[in-house]
Task: structure prediction
Amino acid sequence: MHPDRNKPLIITVILNTNRCEDTLACLASLHQSAYPNHKTIVLDNASTDGSVEAIRAQFPEVQIIQLSENLGYAGNNNTGIEAAINQGADWVLVLNEDTILAPDCLDSLIEAAEADPQAGVLGPTVYHFDEPDVIQSAGGRLTRAWRACHLGQNERDQGQYDRPRQVEWISGCAILVKRQVIEQVGALDARFFYYWEETDWCTRARKQNWKVVHVPNAHLWHKGVQRNYHPSPNVTYYNTRNRLLFLTKNRAPANAWVYALGRTSLTLASWTIRPKWRDMRPHRDAMWQGVRDFFGRRWGMRPS
Result:
């Protein structure tokens, strides 16, 4: 397909770390996209599974940037975001390697963007890959206590989301951001490493009066975070530390702090005292480490 220069240029940024088959499947779905002005950058995080060679062989048009240091989801993707902006992207799509896009996904996102000039961050309906009509995320919201929740999670799609609407944040597995937003608020905050960085990015955009929009007729399937998903202690660490960082950065009200610190204290006590939670001791240690590192202002990768 020849590029249509009259359409905004989307540059998709995909981070790959030893996920060759997933990344190739994602690129194949992008290759089937009907959108006429699109490029792809793959950031390879020192993969040893032949990813770079396989991508070059099957998708020679894809630009590959080989990373020399692991800065996490946030820092690594910032390398691609910067490259996309330098190459003239009107929109940057940060996309997980374990996703599959519908052929009209990009078209639907741009159609919604062009309908509202204040739409600065957009996201598709994300479905569970193993349950193709069950929603994983239809955008996100913050509760009164500033907990981040996915809208529509685990609901069967019955058309309950029938038009683009404003949400408070977009799932980081597929987040489309306007060039002007990035120029105004910056890229992802690399301190998060991963977890909460997309919520923070969307919050910064909303503070500058950009709209964050869920586009229901843009469809994408995500292999990660299935219904029976059980997070690792690493996830507990980042979720604990980064939630407190998010609250600090965005000047959360007192009730959000009371809730966050109260729940954390109760969980730590329960995982320590109650015999039924003996198996959660690694999570307890990770949570406690996350609290300590927050107050010690230690960011980036979890120390071993």
